[in-house]
Design goal:
The chain is mainly beta. Helices cover 6% and strands 34% of the residues. The longest helix has 8 residues. The chain is globular. The N terminus is likely disordered.
Length: 218
C-alpha cells in the first residue's frame, strides 16, 4: 500500500505493528550469512519465511539483518562503495541538527539510477549525479530512520531498496546485476549520509555513512 507523502511509483511494504522491533542480539534468521549472499532480494526474502506463516514481511525477514560482515568506517569517504566507480565524486553534507527524512532517486530511461537527493529535516540537499531522469521519492514518518540498504549494479547503479526501523521497504529501480547489502555496525545507528561517484549516464558507485540519530546527540 502506498503511503501518503510518497511521489512516483515507489511501493511501500509494511509490517504489522505488533511484529516490529529493532534488530538486537536475537538469533539470526536463516537468510543471514552465506545462504543469503549474492542472491536476489526475492530469494533472500524466501529464505527468511516460514511456510506456515502468512506473507507479512518482518524486520527479521527483510533487509535483512542481513549480516554479511561488512566493515564500516566512521566517515563516508573511507567506507566500502558498491559499483565499479569512476567519474566525479559526491558526498552529502553532514547535518548535525536534523536526521534524514526522505530520499529522492532519479531513474533514467535505460533503468539506470542517474542521481539522488537526501532530505534532512524539511530541506532537500542538492542533486548528486547525472542530469535527467524521472524522480521517485519517499518521505519518512516522524522519528523513522533508514537502517538498511539493498541494491544492485552493473556498470551503473540500477536498484535500491531502503529499509527502515518501522519495518517498511521502499524500492527504486529494477534489480539487475551484482547485489549488495549495507547496514550499520550497531543496532542504534541509522543512515546519516550518502556518497559515491557518477558519470554522464548515472551513478557508478554508492556508499553509506551510518551514525546515531540526532536525538541521541543532543
Amino acid at each position: 500500500m502506498a503511503q501518503e507523502g510518497i511521489k512516483g511509483p515507489v511501493a511501500d511494504i509494511q509490517v504489522p505493528k505488533d511484529r516490529l522491533r529493532r534488530p538486537g542480539k536475537a538469533p539470526p534468521p536463516p537468510c543471514l550469512g552465506p545462504r543469503g549472499q549474492g542472491r536476489p532480494l526475492s530469494e533472500i526474502v524466501g529464505l527468511c519465511y516460514s511456510p506456515r506463516e502468512p506473507l507479512n514481511l518482518q524486520p527479521e525477514a527483510m533487509l535483512l539483518w542481513l549480516t554479511l560482515a561488512f566493515l564500516w568506517s566512521p566517515t563516508c569517504w573511507a567506507q566500502q562503495k558498491y559499483g565499479p566507480g569512476g567519474g566525479t565524486y559526491f558526498s552529502t553534507s553532514r547535518d548535525f541538527q536534523n536526521d534524514i527524512t526522505g530520499i529522492r532517486v532519479f531513474i533514467g530511461p535505460l533503468g539506470l539510477i542517474k542521481s539522488i537527493q537526501v532530505r534532512f529535516g524539511s530541506s532537500w540537499s542538492e542533486k548528486y549525479g547525472a542530469p535527467g531522469g524521472t524522480p521517485q521519492e519517499v518521505i519518512l514518518l516522524p522519528e523513522e530512520h533508514i537502517t538498511g540498504i539493498y541494491g544492485s549494479y552493473k556498470n551503473f547503479l540500477r536498484h535500491l531498496v531502503i529499509y527502515t526501523d518501522r519495518g517498511r521497504l521502499f524500492p527504486f529501480g529494477k534489480e539487475d546485476g551484482n547485489t549488495f547489502i549495507a547496514f550499520p555496525d550497531e543496532s542504534d545507528k541509522v543512515l546519516i549520509g550518502v556518497c559515491g561517484h557518477y558519470k554522464l549516464l548515472g551513478i557508478t558507485s554508492i556508499g553509506f555513512e551510518w551514525g546515531y540519530p540526532s536525538f541521541l546527540n543532543k
